[in-house]
């Protein structure tokens, strides 16, 4: 049976803005207050998707969430006769809260959920757990809509949807951004690697400056509920120095595909132990490690360029990987030098593609943050009712949809504009019909 790894990318929403909401995410903090371009952001993301699709990859889209999120404002005590009044109340009393419920952060689909494909699970079904995103308020409000969207796309007995983990520090979960899968081929049983920032019973070994967003306890709970086999599951701690340098998710410092793990020397607290555990769980085939030393690329340069927030692509009928990196990698001397070397030596990565995703990057989201990977068979793809798989026709429709509905620019002061709610709802209503998703939003 033909099996693929499908990239589901989060479409950027109409209220995309730079509010500086994420402590520990250097790009978010440094761009807070700057003017964004929702239209450019959405188009940049869409161009990445079509570029991958034109190269023969299976590519799909996830719709943005409904923002400003009025149900959250209601829960927080803002009142009014209409939704517009509620927004006006929040705008007057608490603009920072309003900014939080306007964030288009669902675009970073790598944080939407953790998925374990059928080949890895005891019951042979594909398991999903939406991330509770406990660490940041503006992200914690994504969970319910994420769950609704995943259920509307992945329907039927072959899929099992779990509720999010309980909230609270112990089970803080950031989804697939801290989860990788190593395998020989997508349809074979793989080894699932869960990376956590802190273990709640050993907080002292965690970071000192910035928060560790994923806990070991959350990772263990997901592995348990997905029915993963103990010998095929590995847990590893992120290097606390990496988190303190701005690596708020593991996918900012490591990326894996099939049997290749590309990471920085300071990605993991105990890299030797990790290799031993991965190698012994993996079986006969070999894992290939490409580890970049601090001498070649410092943690600072890795965070500034997002070198490791790249997508490792194995294009159809090719034996070597393409690396999709943000354009910022071409602008950082050490990183560009490293990538030139990588392309010219005989490494399994033999081509680097540079993409402009600046709008997302300015909030700390590179190519890998924007995508959620799901292993699917050809049959599962064909049986999916939602029209989310990207082809030239859908690309054209989405481009046209963005051009009609999105603003050219948005400043956090514009979040007070009541028209933003109406514009956004009109756009999302139309989109959910275009993608055949049904009523996925509370306002519908
Ligand atoms: O959670 N930024 C996101 C970026 C997420 C990137 N995802 C992965 N690494 N997988 C975050 O910090 C910034 C929003 C703002 O500041 O307006 C934000 O939410």
Question: What is the tally of beta strands?
Answer: 15
Helix proportion range: 25-40%
Q: What ranges have pLDDT less than 50 throughout 5 or more consecutive residues?
A: none
Mean pLDDT: 97
Distinct compounds present: N~2~-(3-carboxypropanoyl)-L-arginine
Largest sheet: 3 strands, mixed
Return Rg in Å: 21 Å
Kindly report how far apart the N and C termini lie.
38 Å
CATH topology: L-arginine/glycine Amidinotransferase, Chain A
Q: What's the CATH architecture name?
A: 5-stranded Propeller
Q: In CATH, what is the homologous superfamily?
A: Succinylarginine dihydrolase
Q: What is the number of domains?
A: 1
The CATH class designation is Alpha Beta
What does this 3D model show about the protein?
The protein has 444 residues and is an alpha/beta fold. The chain has helices at 26-31, 38-54, 70-75, 83-93, 95-102, 137-140, 143-153, 216-225, 240-244, 271-282, 299-305, 333-344, 358-361, 378-383, 392-405, 419-434; strands at residues 3-10, 59-62, 113-116, 126-130, 159-161, 179-182, 191-196, 233-237, 254-257, 260-264, 288-292, 311-313, 321-326, 349-355, 371-377. The chain has a single domain, classed as Succinylarginine dihydrolase (L-arginine/glycine Amidinotransferase, Chain A). The protein starts with a strand and ends in a 10-residue tail after the last helix. It has 16 helices and 15 strands. Helix content is 34%, strand content 17%. The strands form five sheets. A three-stranded mixed beta sheet has the order 2-1-15. It has a three-stranded mixed beta sheet with strand order 3-4-5. A three-stranded mixed beta sheet has the order 6-7-8, sandwiched between helices. The radius of gyration is 21 Å and the shape is globular. N~2~-(3-carboxypropanoyl)-L-arginine (SUG) is lined by residues 18-22, 25, 28, 32, 103, 105, 108, 110-111, 136, 139, 177, 248-249, 251-252, 363-365, 369.
């Amino acid at each position: 049976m033909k099996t693929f790894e499908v990239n589901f990318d989060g479409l950027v929403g109409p209220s995309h803005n730079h509010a500086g909401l994420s402590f520990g995410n250097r790009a978010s903090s440094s761009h807070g207050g700057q003017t964004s371009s929702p239209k450019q952001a959405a188009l940049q993301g869409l161009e990445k998707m079509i570029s991958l699709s034109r190269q023969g990859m299976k590519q799909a889209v996830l719709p943005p969430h409904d923002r400003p999120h009025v149900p959250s404002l209601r829960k927080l005590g803002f009142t009014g006769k209409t939704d517009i009044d509620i927004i006006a109340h929040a705008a007057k009393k608490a603009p920072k809260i309003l900014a939080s419920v306007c964030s288009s952060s669902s675009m970073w689909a790598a944080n939407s959920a953790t998925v374990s494909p059928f080949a890895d699970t005891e019951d042979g079904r594909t398991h999903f757990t939406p991330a509770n995103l406990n660490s940041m308020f503006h992200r914690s409000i994504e969970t319910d809509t994420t769950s609704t969207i995943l259920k509307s796309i992945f329907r039927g007995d072959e899929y099992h949807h779990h509720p999010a983990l309980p909230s609270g520090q112990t089970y803080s979960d950031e989804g697939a951004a801290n989860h990788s899968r190593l395998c020989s081929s997508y349809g074979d049983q793989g080894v699932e690697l869960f990376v956590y920032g802190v273990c709640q019973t050993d907080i002292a070994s965690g970071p000192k400056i910035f928060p560790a967003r994923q806990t070991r306890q959350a990772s263990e709970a997901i592995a348990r509920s997905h029915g993963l086999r103990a010998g095929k599951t590995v847990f590893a701690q992120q290097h606390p120095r990496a988190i303190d340098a701005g690596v708020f998710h593991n996918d900012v410092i490591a990326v894996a595909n099939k049997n290749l793990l590309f990471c920085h020397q300071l990605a993991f607290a105990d890299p030797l132990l990790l290799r031993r555990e991965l190698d012994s769980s993996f079986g006969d085939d070999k894992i290939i490690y490409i580890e970049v030393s601090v001498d070649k690329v410092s943690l600072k340069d890795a965070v500034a360029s997002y070198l490791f927030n790249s997508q490792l692509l194995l294009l159809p009928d090719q034996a070597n990987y393409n690396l999709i990196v943000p354009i910022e990698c071409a602008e950082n001397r050490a990183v560009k030098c490293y990538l030139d070397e990588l392309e010219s030596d005989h490494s399994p990565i033999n081509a680097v593609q540079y993409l402009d995703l600046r709008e997302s990057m300015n909030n700390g989201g590179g190519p890998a943050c924007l995508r959620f990977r799901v292993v699917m068979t050809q049959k599962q793809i064909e049986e999916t009712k939602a029209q989310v798989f990207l082809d030239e026709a859908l690309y054209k429709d989405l481009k046209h949809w963005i051009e009609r509905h999105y603003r050219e620019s948005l400043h956090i002061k514009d979040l007070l504009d009541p028209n933003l709610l109406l514009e956004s709802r009109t756009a999302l209503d139309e989109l959910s019909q275009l993608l055949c998703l049904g009523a996925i939003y509370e306002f519908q």
